[in-house]
Amino acid sequence: MASQIFLDGEFVDRENAKLSVFDHGLLYGDGIFEGIRAYDGNVFKLAEHIRRLYDSAKSILLDIPYSQVEMAELVCETVRRNHLSSAYIRLVVTRGTGDLGLNPYTCHGARVFIIAEQLAMFSSSLYEEGIKTVTSPTRRNRTDALNPKIKTLNYLNNILIKMEALAAGANEAIVLNSEGYVVEGSGENIFIVRDGVITTPPCYLGALEGITRATIIDLALELGLTVREQSFTRHDVYVADEVFLTGTAAEMVPVVECDDRTIGDGTPGPITKRLHQVFQLCTRRDGMKAYPQEAIS
Ligand code: PMP
Questions:
Q1: N or C end of the chain: smaller count of CB under 10 Å?
Q2: Where does the source fall among the domains of life (predicted)?
Q3: What is the complex's ipTM, to 2 decimals?
């Protein structure tokens, strides 16, 4: 059966899910999105994703034509309609159809679509063995130009960075900000481990406030591990005992090489493996809890 896409109030077959070429999401990247996952039939951290979507919308003065509760229900319904137990869900809100100029006030109202499909970002062997990374020459957008806290459709910075990784024969790139501090991956947050201490850069350096990042911090603290939010440079990545990336699409993936330097002994380290285990349990265990109606206003 063709996948069912939610588009502006109805479910349509994949081939009928079409938007105008005058949509400002397409013309200018003027819109916002969320990547969400469902595990074993339950949508993970849905309230958090919905909240971030509405924060992004507020920041760019975009009116979403649904309440947060309605939107959460539409996400769940999209998963159900596609008979998926585990899925990657893409929720997109564009500024809508307007004229060719930049002026967003020519647009006739936001367009909303939701896709739910299977997606694995890396092959299963890479999740076991770890990925190879490079630091990208392209720096993350400055927070005072396009704040990375807003999950906008304007992902060209991230795409260029991903292309640089692939051109260098790596699986993923590690991104620095314009001051040279490590920020995140092309579409994931980053953690390093040294002498048992887990460090992740503060998001104000230019990272998205990742929902997986927050989950990993909570789980690490629950395990009694030390977690710091502190800036670091690529030197700290090179000499770390362990490095891993987190994101909804990527989930949690170990990094075993950066710029030709082997991380630790070149295999995923014990803290990464332990966190990965509890993360997998948590995504299955907390699915229902992750959609508390009362958490959505
Ligand atoms: N950083 C960027 C730039 C991203 O696009 C993503 C994925 N959406 C993340 C980090 C990870 O965020 P999350 O864990 O909320 O998916």
A1: N
A2: Bacteria
A3: 0.99
Domain boundaries along the sequence of the chain: 4-117, 124-283
Class of domain 4-117: alpha beta
Residue 228 contacts residue 248 (beta carbons within 8 Å): no
Residue 35 CB less than 6 A away from ligand 1: yes
CB 195 within 8 A of CB 36: no
Q: Measure 187 CA to ligand 1 centroid, in angstroms.
A: 5
Within 13 Å of residue 159, how many CA atoms lie on the same side as its CB? 5
Confirm or reject: Cβ of 275 under 6 Å from ligand 1: no
Looking at domain 124-283, its CATH architecture is Alpha-Beta Barrel (3.20)
pTM of the model: 0.95
Strand, helix or coil for residue 65: coil
Integer Cα distance of 135 and 226 in angstroms: 26
Cβ proximity of 28 and 102 under 8 Å: yes
Distance between CA atoms of residues 171 and 243, nearest Å: 14
- Residues 40-76 have pLDDT tens digits of 989 999 999 999 999 999 999 999 999 999 999 999 9
User: Is 151 a known active-site residue?
Assistant: yes
Q: Are 265 and 214 contacting, i.e. CB atoms less than 8 angstroms apart?
A: no
* One-letter amino acid for residue 46 of the chain: L
Residues 93-117: tens digit of each pLDDT:
999 999 999 999 999 999 999 999 9
Q: Which of 149, 208, 248 to mutate to test the pocket of ligand 1 (most atoms within 8 A of CB)?
A: 208
Which residues in 22-54 are b (16+ Cβ under 10 Å) and which e? ebbbbbbbbbbbbbbbbbeebbbbbbbbbbbbb
Tell the residue nearest (CA) to atom 9 of ligand 1: 188
